[in-house]
Amino acid sequence: MTRATTSGNRRRSRALRQSLAPLTLVLCVALAWPAESLARALIRFIHALPGVGRITVAVGRGGRSEQLGAVAFAQATGWHSLRSGRFRWSIDTHGKPLAGGPATVGGGAYDVVLLSPRPPSVMLAIYRARGGVRGASLLRVIHAAPELGAPALRLDRMLVTASLRFEQATAYHRLTPGVHSLAALPNVASATPLVAIPRLRLLGGASYSAILVGSRGQRLRWVTVTDRGAPLTRPARRPAPASARMAIVEPGDSLWTIAARHLGPGAGSPAIEAEVQAIWSLNAARLGTGDPNLIFPGQIVLFPLAATT
Fold it and tell me: Are 64 and 90 in contact (CB under 8 A)?
């Protein structure tokens, strides 16, 4: 009797473990899934495809796709928010597909540079963007000019790298806020730059990427973008009154959408970006998050007086 009972108990215990195994797996997935599903990425695309005209960029998941807008060579799209993980991207020009494929990002903000190492191939180079540091300016350089080789870089009077290869990015350099100069040189011994920015104004608490683009018949140039802030670019749900001196953050809002509503439909990306920086400078201490991307519904955002007069 004891042996039969023990054997029966073992069978029931084994059956119970087997029946609980799928539930345990589901619970493990459920515990891991919210962290992944709640992680957000902010991405923008920089058009660095020499010889390619205006393009339209779209990203999506599954069967859904959303356009980020049309940009010309050496221009950047606005920021776009999506769930971190795998997504699909595509670009077209004059209504005809040009390139596309899968890509993966984690949480945070990313500069996504469209490159063409060998025409007509198109590839993505994804660079994580860093937030600003109080009282300092941060600047990195990204090499996106396929025929330039590996130039040396000079920041002010300092040689920051002797050789930067195509697709490479430097670390962020910490600088005093103000006006700086940046130059790409053929080599460390050269005094004549290939391309330079003689007066690059950098704000305190902000981070920037200077992207070297050009060649294949298009002049070399720098594309300078502000990484700090990485504001979302969801469309505005309602216009703000023209006389408003403040806004209440609503679900889905970002400093970018708030600034865009405040400036009105005629404002371009440079004006909106400048307004975002001004709004953050005025409200950073009040909002208390330490991150321009992190604002919450119900918070009050004040507008700079100069922008409302």
Answer: no
**b/e string for 79-98 if b means 16 or more Cβ within 10 A?**
bbbeebeebebbbbeeeeeb
| Alpha-carbon span 202 to 174, nearest angstrom | 11
The letter for the amino acid at 255 is L
131-229 has the same fold as 40-129: yes
pTM above 0.90, yes or no: no
Half-sphere exposure of 273 (CA within 13 A, CB side): 17
The domain limits of the chain are: 1-38, 40-129, 131-229, 246-307
Question: Across the strands, what pairs with 61?
Answer: 64
| Predicted pLDDT of residue 284 | 83
Alpha-helical runs (H) found in the chain? 2-38, 255-263, 269-287
User: Order of strands, edge to edge, in the sheet holding 96-105?
Assistant: 64-71, 55-61, 85-93, 96-105
Write the Ramachandran bin of 229: left for phi over 0, alpha for psi from -120 to 50, otherwise beta: left
**Structure tokens of 86?**
């795998």
In a 3-state reduction of DSSP, which class is residue 14?
A: helix
| The domain made up of 40-129 is a member of CATH 2.60.40.2890 | yes
CATH of domain 131-229: 2.60.40
Q: Please give the Cα distance from 107 to 84 (Å, whole number).
A: 6
What pLDDT, in 10s, does the model give residues 54-106? 999 999 988 788 888 888 999 988 888 888 899 999 999 988 999 999 999 99
What are the DSSP E strand ranges found in the chain?
A: 40-47, 55-61, 64-71, 80-83, 85-93, 96-105, 108-115, 123-129, 137-143, 152-155, 158-161, 173-175, 178-185, 195-202, 206-215, 218-226, 246-248, 300-302
Cβ contact 295:241 at 8 Å: no
Is 303 strand, coil or helix? Answer: coil
